[in-house]
Amino acid sequence: MEFRASKVAAEQNEQALKYLTKNLDDPEAGRQVFNDLLDKLGNAVVSFPDWHPILTAPPNNSGEHMYSIGNVAAYRGIDHTVEFVKGFVTCPYSEDKAKQIVGAVEEIPKLYAYRLENPLYAENTYPVVVIANEMDLEGDGTIRSRDALILFAEQSVKEMRDARVAETWWNVRSLILGKPHGSRSSLFVNQHSGGHMRKILETLNNSGIYGPIKESSLEMLSQKKRDRICETLLVAALTEWNKSDEEIEFELRGETCSAIVRDTWDDGEELSIKVEIGKFDLMIRGFYYEKNKSFSFQEPTGKRKLAEKFL
Hints:
The protein is of the alpha+beta class and 311 residues long. The chain has nine helices and 13 strands.
């Protein structure tokens, strides 16, 4: 489905507004504060891309990859938080925690923090705003392409030395684009930026600098094709199942398939089925319902070339 940024942004902003104002004595005053935040921080979002300064600028003594602001030591004490394109607002109940967050961010280059005078989320909170203040936004509300590409490239280079495998675009696009996102754009980056990020990633992957390419997500295939792959393998497993052994092995289209078939509730109504080829080369999970002779599937994972053998 096409990613309609304006519609998604409106939905995110409405959800964020409701979350931050529904418990206030004066929701209209809260709305004015929220609209000011939109002007300064851009649209509300679900999560930051992993190259965003909000995640990468704070000191990281653990050496762990930062996937969310909840893991960042400098933001310890955040509570009732809403993220935006350029930063976030958090609403702790403790004034000491609010002061602690502002003080920690003041020590971090590229970031800026300040206290809000008006409450958000609840009357007895002490809201703090944290901004990545060296990024500009395009007219469409996304991060300026040059800024986004530089930040992404810097993060990609930083990860080279410790990498063990190369992740495909489909495996990590949520980390690169941030959430919510489409196939190559999000509320953080437009299609121009997203398209170039994909080219950079694939060039680095093909160079071998990260190591062997790891395939996992099959989202590049249509939902119809993913469902067909699942059904092909689940039907085959069910056909080979002898109703006595839970674990079976069978050959299909030149591949050795290992399967586990279990009566989910021991009543013959629902069978849970898992089919695996190789060690994570392809994995299918789903359920068979005896009453209406139908299947349901979970998202398949594995290597595209192998998966397409079962279309």
